[in-house]
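Researcher: Quick test of sequence recovery. Tokens follow.
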């Protein structure tokens, strides 16, 4: 028996799983929560990378508690995308990492886009625009606002790259996670010198090599091995961003499958054998971590919004579901623009939440809770519809993340997306995907002709009891409400900018 560990470093906590390399069965799980740094200015969201190291030691030791560690052959690391981990020449962290949901670099992103010739030109250069969540703006922000730290900067890493560096001592990136920096041309998978030089010509010297995702990152060093309770020399795979690993963990490694994650943020993505580029940059043209591409749309407000509403009324999860069920589809015309933390798709970082359609009937907990779930789901559907207009076809949506555990939310999702949805038997998402990628890397390293599609087809199982088909009547109703939400969003954008406090 060969065992493989997958680790997922998120913004709210870290998870680890151990899987059997012959069956894909999850044999152990570990989780450790942690917080953001508190007291930062509006729009700033940061964490100390040392928190991730401490959490990794806890979750891996918990996950391997009841397995034979001598049979562990590989480790794969998934990490929250777009974070900026700056290292000095000694490999030490210079300042806390700016995370994916840090939007402090709004002005830097605007300056970069304008200086490079506008959104269409930037998309022509890289395949993506430069959003405040992406890494490029965060690097320029540090140069402008923290010149002493900029002078110390020797290496730019992403969160999962930093964990790989701690495990192996090797500085490198892989194509998937690197494609979310807005610093590479996703078509040729190399650094885009026009963007890099616009930030600073010396930045290119601070960017590590980008290597194919099938190549291992290195081998486990003695110090982290002792801390994790593992043997030195275990193969560490390239890993990748959480969305890239989530694609593997949901079996989204071939065309016609969409994965939709209902987590703190929301994502929708699919496999493509060619780059899919949106001229407006709203659908992100990422590389995946298997050798293909991963067109993706991301919203920053999903369970973050529903949790605020749930806590407002003091509901537990069962009470939330009952509340949703006690109001009709469409929530009586009550529409929520759920931009509580700004928004990424559509790109309105200055956006705020808006409730439209309040009256003496809809001003009730049941309507407000349903409007919250419908609002964040229609926010994702904005990207889903755009991807379909770009020619991306879906036969099935695989639903994952915390929101997918809510039966009412699954029904709402099928009706809003107008597509059959189903959940996974192993809903460990990115951690499971990281373990599967580690298995794929190990087999390839041994010289086997291993296919990631064969691995995911064998090990990723659907939970047929969760399958939901859309109801035609509800689909038609939600199409009308979607049009209203889209128009409301467009009409509000100038006002968002005028009233912004960023």
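Model:
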């Amino acid at each position: 028996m060969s065992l493989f560990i997958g680790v997922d470093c998120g913004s709210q906590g870290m998870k680890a799983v151990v899987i059997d390399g012959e069956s894909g069965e999850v044999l152990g799980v570990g989780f450790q929560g942690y917080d953001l740094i508190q007291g930062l200015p509006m729009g700033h969201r940061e964490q100390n990378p040392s928190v991730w190291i401490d959490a990794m030691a806890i979750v891996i030791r918990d996950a391997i508690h009841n397995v034979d560690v001598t049979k562990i052959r590989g480790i794969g690391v998934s990490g929250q995308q777009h974070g900026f981990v700056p290292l000095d020449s000694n490999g030490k962290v210079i300042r806390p990492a700016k995370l994916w949901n840090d939007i402090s670099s709004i002005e830097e992103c605007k300056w970069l886009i304008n200086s490079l010739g506008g959104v269409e030109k930037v998309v022509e250069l890289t395949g993506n625009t430069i959003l405040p969540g992406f890494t490029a703006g965060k690097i320029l922000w540090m140069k402008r606002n923290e010149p002493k730290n900029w002078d110390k900067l020797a290496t730019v890493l992403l969160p999962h790259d930093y964990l790989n560096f701690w495990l192996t001592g090797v500085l490198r990136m892989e194509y998937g996670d690197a494609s979310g920096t807005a610093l590479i041309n996703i078509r040729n998978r190399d650094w885009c010198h026009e963007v890099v030089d616009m930030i600073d010509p010396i930045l290119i010297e601070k960017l590590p090599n980008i290597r194919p995702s099938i190549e291992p990152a290195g081998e486990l060093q003695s110090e982290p091995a002792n801390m994790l309770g593992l043997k030195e020399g275990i193969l560490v795979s390239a890993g990748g961003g959480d969305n890239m690993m989530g694609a593997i963990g949901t079996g989204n490694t071939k065309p016609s499958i969409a994965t939709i994650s209902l987590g703190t943020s929301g994502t929708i993505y699919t496999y493509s054998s060619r780059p899919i580029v949106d001229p407006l940059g709203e659908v992100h043209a990422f590389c995946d971590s298997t050798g293909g591409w991963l067109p993706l749309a991301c919203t920053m407000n999903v369970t973050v919004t529903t949790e605020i509403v749930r806590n407002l009324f003091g509901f537990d999860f069962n009470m939330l579901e009952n509340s949703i069920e006690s109001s009709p589809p469409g929530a009586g015309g009550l529409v929520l623009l759920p931009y509580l933390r700004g928004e990424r798709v559509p790109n309105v970082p200055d956006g705020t939440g808006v409730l439209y359609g309040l009256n003496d009937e809809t001003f009730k907990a049941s309507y407000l809770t349903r409007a919250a779930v419908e609002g964040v789901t229609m926010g994702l559907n904005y990207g889903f519809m755009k991807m379909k207009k770009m020619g991306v076809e879906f036969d099935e949506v695989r639903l994952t993340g915390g929101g997918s555990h809510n039966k009412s939310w699954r029904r709402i999702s099928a009706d809003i997306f107008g597509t059959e949805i189903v959940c996974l038997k192993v809903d460990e998402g990115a951690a499971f995907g990281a373990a599967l990628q580690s298995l794929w890397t190990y087999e390839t390293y041994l010289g086997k002709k291993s296919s990631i599609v064969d691995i995911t087809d064998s090990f990723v199982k659907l939970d047929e009891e969760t399958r939901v088909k859309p109801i035609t009547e509800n689909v038609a109703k939600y199409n009308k409400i979607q049009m209203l939400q889209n128009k409301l969003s467009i009409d509000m954008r100038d006002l968002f900018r005028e009233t912004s406090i960023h």
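The chain is about 40% helix and 20% strand.
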